[in-house]
Design goal:
About 75% of the residues lie in helices and about 0% in strands. The chain has one domain. It has 3 helices and no strands.
Length: about 90
């Protein structure tokens, strides 16, 4: 694991130290890792929400046909075969 050094104003440093002492964190590093994990989750949720809204706004829904499902299955089979070829050789 690599280190990152950050500079904080005294008020923020005191806040972080208090969060570590009272929040069940074993170290300042653990506290910052948790903040980064929470930010990653928040951004992933925002991306998912954006994609869902794009889907909802993409037009009227149409019923999937048997041919549509078969096309999807075939595309998945091709991706699996391509993946197997790239990992075997």
């Amino acid at each position: 694991m690599k280190s990152i050094n950050i500079s904080l104003p005294e008020s923020m440093r005191a806040y972080v130290e208090e969060k570590v002492a009272t929040g069940g964190y074993s170290s300042v590093s653990e506290y910052f890792r948790e903040l980064v994990r929470q930010d990653q989750k928040r951004q992933a949720a925002e991306r998912l929400e954006t994609m869902l809204l794009e889907g909802l706004n993409s037009g009227n829904a149409t019923e999937m046909t048997t041919d549509d499902w078969e096309d999807i299955r075939q595309a998945v089979r091709e991706r699996i075969a391509k993946h197997k070829r790239s990992t075997e050789g």
